[in-house]
Amino acid sequence: MSSCLLFSNSDKSIVLVDIPRSIELAQLPKGQTTPSNRRLLSCQPLAKPWQNQVSSKSSQEPNMSQSASALIDELMACETVRHAHKAIRDTYHGDWHLPRTCAPLPDQTTIQHNTEAPAVPQKRKLCATELHHGDSPEFNYIPADSKYLLGSIESQRDSFLKTAPQFDIVVLDPPWPSRSVRRKKKNSYSTTYDMTEMHDLLSLIPIASHLKLEGIVAVWVTNKPAVIDLLKSPGGLFDQWNVEPIGEWIWVKVTSNGEPIVDFGSTWRKPWERLLFAKRRGSSQKLQPERKVVFAVPDLHSRKPNIRMLLEDFLPNGYLGLEVFSRNLTAGWWSWGDQTLLFQQKQHWVDDSATEKQGPKTLCQ
User: Fold this and answer.
1) Treating both helix axes as pointing N-terminal to C-terminal, what angle do 225-232 and 195-203 enclose, rounded to 10 degrees?
2) Nearest CA to 279 among 313, 249, 311, 242?
3) How far apart are CA 204 and CA 337, in angstroms?
4) How far apart are CA 141 and CA 139, in angstroms?
5) 319 Cβ neighbours under 8 A, 6+ residues apart
6) At 213, phi and psi to the nearest 5?
């Protein structure tokens, strides 16, 4: 199975990643050389940028409620992205994604589970790999050495506190408040309705007690200033978790031809999402480079690049990783969330070795 890394500059500050392949490779233990025939079903790659849409006059104007630090933050991100896009355009002349396996996709059925945690944690629900290695009996593919907590943060918190080790890396993809997601998506994580609810939800995650001394936290964020403030402002979640910022990665969403899905200067939507990194206060841990730009052609809604391979550039051998609010599992990692088995369901995968019996699948070029 070929790498998901299609391009990297010399200092690894600019990379191009194929999203479906990154998730496929994350199903395999680190260092496994035996290729897998299993392919993730995907959607057609976007061929042309979205047309700028403006719903009101106010959306065309600068957001005057932005703090000075938030505005500077946004301008710096935009300048970084523009520079990186020019650099990769000048240097890279290959394909911007690998061929995709496309077929009629199943409904993203919500995983059935009891959201009310019992008084005594159920091991069967807690860590499937304590019972199974390889495939789960019927409906899901479970990667080797992966462990998962299937349920809400509230319902599984006690189980996590009793069983989870300390981690070298904790990645969170929180369900940030979003009216559009609440309108359009029935089967994704339930988004919170305001920042107070989000603060309360994230405060339940015991980062401070389960992060190693040299551990790192990485949080996916939207481009809403209030999201950044919730994490970085004095008394915010980073303070609560006893961590401090050390850098960020920016995922730039591009078309199959390498153009941003919306213009970099768009006021109604930005073609990027950011991943903020923080270390324990007083730790000597560093992020090299401090800012990385990750280009990738988007796939299905809620699928982000699996960043295990990129993280391993600076994590110690034998590291322990945790992903919170995950939508798929990663070999060797813990995962926690009520959608954590979503893309592990067998209906989202096809076995290439069986195509002659099942009929050919459509390759999305």
Assistant:
1) 40
2) 242
3) 13
4) 7
5) 168, 169, 312
6) -60, -35
pLDDT score at 17 = 99
User: How many CB atoms are located within 10 Å of the residue 200 CB?
Assistant: 11
Chain-centre distance for alpha carbon 171: 8
What single DSSP character describes residue 359?
-
Flag whether 73 is in a domain.
yes
181 vs 26, which has greater pLDDT? 26
Cross-strand partners of 116: none
Please indicate, yes or no, if residue 51 is contained in any of the structural domains. Answer: no
pLDDT score of 299 more than 80: yes
Residue with tokens 């067998």: 346
CB proximity list for 347: less than 8 A, separation 6 or greater: 106
Number of independent structural domains in the chain? 1
Write out pLDDT tens, residues 183-223: 444 555 566 669 999 999 999 999 999 999 999 999 999 99
* Distance, CA of 252 to CA of 296 (rounded, Å): 6
Q: Is residue 142 part of a domain?
A: yes
Which residue, 68, 46, 51, is CA-closest to 258? 46
> Taking Cα atoms as reference points, which of 33, 85, 108, 140 lies closest to residue 272?
85
Contact, 101 vs 361, CB < 8 A?
Answer: yes
Query: For residue 177, what are its two tokens?
Result: 């408040």
Return the closest-CA partner of residue 211 out of 193, 237, 180: 237
DSSP per residue, 94-148: S-SS--EEE-PPPP-PPPP---S--SS--HHHH-GGGT-SSB-SSSBB--TT-EE
Q: 243: domain CATH number? A: 3.40.50.150
Domain range for 358 is 5-46+67-364
d(CA 84, CA 131): 45
Residue 312 resides in a domain: yes
Q: What integer best gives the mean pLDDT of the chain?
A: 84
